[in-house]
Amino acid sequence: MSDTAARGSTPGEPRPTPATTAASANAKMNDKMNDRANGTASAAPGAAPTAGSGRPAASHAAPRAPHAGPGDAPAPPRGRGGSGAPDDFAVQIADQIESFIVAVREVAKGDEPDSAVPFLLLEVSQLMLAGGRLGAHEDIVPDERYEPDAGPEPDADQLRENLARLLEPIDVYSEVFDPYVPRSMPVACRISDDLADVVTDLSHGLAHYREGRVSEALWWWQFSYLSNWGPTASASLRALQSLVAHVRLDSPLDELDGLDTDTDASAGDETLAEEAGRVMAAEIAEPLGLRRPRV
Fold first, then answer.
1. What are the tens digits of pLDDT across the range 11-53?
2. What's the pTM?
3. What domains lie within the chain, and their CATH numbers?
4. How far apart are CA 117 and CA 230, in angstroms?
5. CB count in 10 Å sphere of residue 87
């Protein structure tokens, strides 16, 4: 979700709001998840991941050194914006997110291709813990009504291409977007596309965090977890787990039978056209007072 139109949160445009949850239940759940996530607090209040200075460059953000030891306290974000010092929850979420970004970029270099899939499985699994904590948290309200400019979006094309080369020929997998939609058709996805999109979403919030806009970063991470990077990361996690299971259980993969992201593995062109017509009729014709076509 790199385009601002999809976010609906450009300056002058009201920000979207995540679905409201029960505050008391979420507060209790979040306290328990905070206690269980790492056993102990990973950093003191006021700390934040080492992030360099300034906004992210067009191609990549300035990462901290990977695999920092438990005694290496991250540096605080620069004090701009009205969020104040981050608390333990913000520090832990930011640290997990930055660790994921750094790790995926390291894997994409291709230095250890044989361990790429299990390493990505580990990193995406750890990221989903941060996402679960954000999803269980009560709605985060940012300090400002409109989202401040976070600077240019990082270019994820190189990361996407490197991952695609590394994961060939197991990059493409089949996924159902919403398991609660009846008779949902599986579609072809790419792990490389998914991970690059997740990194883009997370980097957007990290830019706010590095500028000291802590509540803005948390709001964005929570909203985009519910709307984009959460479903995307969980889909790629299932694919990665399946790959590891096939290898460890000595169960060879079946032929993909031409599965590709340019085609639908289950529905023909006529079916897709009919579904698109029904969607347009529901979303456009009825609000405009036009007669809906007979189905």
1. 445 565 544 333 444 444 445 444 444 444 333 333 333 333 3
2. 0.62
3. 4-67+74-263 (1.20.120.1550), 269-295 (no CATH)
4. 19
5. 14
